[in-house]
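REQUEST
  id: r-88c1
  op: predict_structure
  target: 3'-phosphate/5'-hydroxy nucleic acid ligase
  payload:
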Amino acid sequence: MSYVEVPGAKVPIRMWTDPSTVDDGAMQQLRNTATLPWIKGLAVMPDVHFGKGATVGSVIAMQGAVCPAAVGVDIGCGMSAVKSSLTANDLPGDLSRLRSKIEQAIPVGRGLHREAVDPGRLYRFPTAGWDDFWSRFDGVADAVKFRRERAALQMGTLGAGNHFVELCVDTSDSVWLMLHSGSRNIGKELAEFHIGEAQKLPHNQGLIDRDLAVFVADTPQMAAYRHDLFWAQEYAKYNRAIMMALFQEVVRREFRKARVTFDQVISCHHNYVAEEQYEGMDMLVTRKGAIRAGSGEFGIIPGSMGTGSYIVKGLGNAASFNSASHGAGRKMSRSAAKKRFTARDLEEQTRGVECRKDSGVVDEIPGAYKPIEKVIEQQRDLVEVVAKLKQVVCVKG
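RESPONSE
  id: r-88c1
  status: 200
  body:
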């Protein structure tokens, strides 16, 4: 579908979904966002749903300003995926051992590595810039500097919630490795600190929603936020790269006889800010629950822990600010899912997938998410499908 335009105070709201299907809370958040004095455009992806601070599935283009709550607290959260030389025929009937080996290599939930991972020993890890990246930690907000050791030990860890590590098979029987995570606790603490700082600023006092407080260009607060934001985005990228390298090592050891090789890793943020130009204007584009889908750029759009995921290539649609959805999108809150579904429901909906099937992850049940096939269909003018994947192993925190 092409987008539907809904009137907004400062800019129209371009929606790649039927507005009548969007819950009232999310629609109000979008209307509030469209009132911001600095806004130049607002695009809404088909996986849109109510979010903390700002709407998940929104792309906000602003000039001379950025809203930290519109990035979210998991700065740089995103996806990585890589195609391997394995095929479905190489996989054993029982995948529980492989799942256990992944969980041993990659700490999940609040888990940490016992020692910081040395990227120099990892398979095909891009170490250029690593030392420079850590040297820039000295410039982050004083409020979080005491977290350096924890940040180092959490580098290469999964987290909880909707984060996952998966082994997947595509429609041609090729095996893929895929994972979803972000900037862990250090990103969360940086985000919360700067959201609080923005809400204190005088120019934000008259906003319709204090969660939409912004930093404006050429101020020390904006400079400080940009430093920490871009550092946290880089942390998230390295975090996924280390996990992917650890995952690849597990697979290479477990399938040693197959001499496994891997294609180039695809990686994309979906909670982040980028400096981009549209209609001759330099803008700060915030994607919260959206990926960049510039012409020819690869992206990843996952479903839930029991459904398919998609590798896509962007079509470069400027109306969406070169963006696409970041996943299926929730159709009910975590608390609602826990009330509605049971562990038995989870077991049924994840049949055939080696994964947790206990009450601790019921809020991630496929039934709590929108149908991924419909979400993909609604953005055919934003991306083309390159591969469709189905997980056979799913590791959750």
